[in-house]
Specification:
This protein is α+β, with helices and mostly antiparallel strands. The chain is built from 12 helices and 36 strands.
């Protein structure tokens, strides 16, 4: 366990953070631990255990450097893993916990041995499986072992082939399946067998390009969206086979189709100016529950976290918030107007805000009042088109991307107002900007051939931490589940895995190559695999493991 703790910041690095990290009582608790350690250390262990619950990870790290007794109390209380786990939003905590609880002891053992030969550490972790906070202990150590690797060995576990470029490839929530979407008119579902091999389980066919394919939250359904004007819901049966359960039709191409957070509904977005909300009935059938009308193409349609609202974005210069009433009907609750096309609109994690992105160079933050009405709270301006705007996992920040080569981080103050906190600059248009799971970092991807990692400091300022270079435009960049690794997707035919070291620096650890541009690359839920999709007609599932002697 000591080998893991030693990878954390030193006391000198975290002393200032500890003094400002306490959310219980007042800040003097941490300050007392620094300036009057004897008085603080004399407190009974049960009191110290209780205090640990209110300290951030930085505060815990600082305290463990004070003296041996505090260090022992922190170890006995598993305070470091618990504080690390607490830094994530509750929804992400649930996802992380599920990753561990759904794996058997053999799978957990295999996870650890990929990154360490320390049998004593591995046995110690696995022997704690019945403890209440086992999931936090396991994940804390597993991700730290991964972080300690200076380079990764890449092992292609499967190649999913198509007859034309693969637009996207994504893992199911449990990481045991992958679904692809291809220009060849097919989506393929590939599943992992007990021996670790990957086998094709289903091919979903359309008459032309499949624009997207996504899993339901429970991983038992897939919905595709195609230029043939159809979205197909495909479900997994008890025998493991996949069958088409419903086909939703539009009068023109369907750009996207996604499930609600509970998986009971899905919503489409089409070039025919309509978004359709489709719900699953008790008998398993899928029926159209509502049609949201726009005057031009609907670019996106997404659910709120509670699944009770949908927000659409359209070329008719409007975004619409549509809510479900007590009788099950769906009604327009708000219309957000722009001076040009609206490219995207998304909800905050608590569902109380929406942020839009428009061709008019603006992103608008709109909030729901106590009476249910929606009011504009702020407008974020750029010098050119705004392509996307998304909330951080805690909903306190927004990041925008624009053709003007800038990404702006906007933060919400205590009084509810929104203020610009940082501007991330590139030499050309920014294709994507994504927050880390803890909301403390942002990674951008740009047509200038670079991805940038920007982190929030203790004082709240945002500083550039790393620049990841490619030989061509970078289409996307995303974080792994603990936020300490990034994978990029570039037109140079490479996906790069870059990780944060113990000293905070970011270094390239692996490169996954394709014969043509990489259109997307994402981690699986436990961060050990990457799936990349390429215009070479292939999607690759790549396993990451230690590339050096493990200790």
């Amino acid at each position: 366990m000591d080998s893991i703790s030693n990878t954390l910041p030193t006391f000198h690095q975290t002393q200032q953070a500890a003094a400002t990290a306490v959310s219980w009582g007042s800040k003097t608790v941490a300050q007392s631990s620094v300036h009057k350690p004897a008085e603080f250390c004399a407190l009974p262990s049960d009191v110290l255990y209780e205090l640990n619950r209110y300290l951030t990870l930085r505060g815990i790290v600082a305290l463990c450097r004070v003296n041996k007794r505090l260090n022992r109390v922190i170890e006995d209380d598993y305070a470091l893993p618990k504080a690390w786990f607490r830094q994530f939003p509750s929804s992400h905590q649930d996802q992380l916990k599920k990753i561990v609880t759904e794996k058997n002891p053999v799978e957990l053992h295999d996870w650890l041995v990929q990154f360490s030969n320390d049998k004593e550490l591995i046995d110690l972790l696995l022997n704690n499986k019945e403890q209440k906070h086992f999931h936090a202990q396991f994940l804390f150590n597993a991700f730290k072992l991964m972080q300690q690797c200076t380079t990764f060995k890449v092992d292609t576990k499967a190649t999913i082939t198509h007859d034309d470029c693969v637009f996207s490839a994504t893992f199911s929530p449990d990481g045991r399946h992958v679904v692809t979407a291809s220009k060849d008119g097919k989506a393929k579902v590939v599943g992992q067998s007990a021996d670790g091999s990957w086998q094709e389980k289903a091919t979903i066919t359309h008459d032309t390009h499949v624009n997207s394919a996504t899993f339901s939250p429970d991983g038992r359904h897939v919905v595709t969206a195609s230029d043939d004007g159809k979205a197909k819901v495909v479900g997994q049966s008890a025998d493991g086979s996949w069958q088409v359960k419903a086909t939703i039709t539009h009068d023109d191409c369907v750009f996207s189709a996604t499930f609600s957070p509970d998986g009971g509904h899905m919503v489409t977005a089409s070039d025919d100016g309509k978004a359709k909300v489709v719900g699953q009935s008790a008998d398993g059938s899928w029926q159209v529950k509502a049609t949201i009308i726009h005057d031009r193409r609907v670019n996106s349609a997404t659910f709120s976290p509670d699944g009770r609202h949908v927000v659409t974005a359209s070329l008719d210069r409007k975004a619409k918030v549509v809510g479900q009433s007590a009788d099950g009907s769906w009604q327009v609750k708000a219309t957000i107007t722009h001076d040009d096309y609206v490219f995207s609109a998304t909800f905050s994690p608590d569902g109380r805000h929406v942020v839009t992105a428009s061709d008019d160079g603006k992103a608008k933050v709109v909030g729901q009042s106590a009476d249910g009405s929606w009011q504009e709270k702020d407008t974020i301006t750029h010098d050119d088109n705004v392509f996307s705007a998304t909330f951080s996992p805690d909903g306190r920040h927004v990041v925008t991307t624009s053709r003007d080569g800038k990404a702006k981080v906007i933060g919400q103050s205590a009084d509810g107002s929104w203020q610009e906190k940082a501007t991330i600059t590139h030499d050309r248009r920014i294709n994507s900007a994504t927050f880390s799971p803890d909301g403390r970092h942002v990674v951008t991807a740009s047509r200038d051939g670079k991805a940038k990692v920007v982190g929030q400091s203790v004082d709240g300022s945002w500083q550039e931490k790393a620049t990841i270079p490619h030989d061509n435009l970078v289409r996307s960049a995303t974080f792994n589940p603990d936020g300490c690794h990034v994978v990029t997707a570039s037109a140079d035919g490479k996906a790069k895995v870059v990780g944060q070291s113990a000293n905070g620096s970011w270094q390239e650890k692996a490169s996954i190559t394709h014969d043509n541009l990489v259109r997307s690359a994402t981690f699986n839920p436990d961060g050990r695999h990457v799936v990349s999709a390429s215009s070479d007609g292939n999607a690759k599932i790549t396993k990451l493991s230690s590339d050096s002697e493990k200790g």
